[in-house]
Write a structure and sequence with these properties.
mainly alpha
């Protein structure tokens, strides 16, 4: 199996699993949709989390040679 075929299969399986979860747990999907709408008001929180991740894992790395 080529890497491209494997990646396509993994993406297809992920989409199927997500669709199955939406069908099985519709209230959870509603919660996720509401949370996504509310995130536009908390964009600064997302930026702070990304900055913290960069500081923790990215800042102290040695440059590749």
């Amino acid at each position: 199996m080529s890497p491209r075929t494997r990646a396509a299969a993994q993406a297809g399986i992920l989409v199927l699993v997500l669709a199955l979860l939406v069908v099985v747990f519709p209230r959870a999907y509603g919660f996720v949709e509401m949370a996504a709408r509310e995130l536009r008001y908390f964009w600064w929180l997302i930026l702070l989390v990304l900055l913290a991740g960069w500081l923790i894992w990215g800042l102290g790395r040695k440059p590749r040679s």
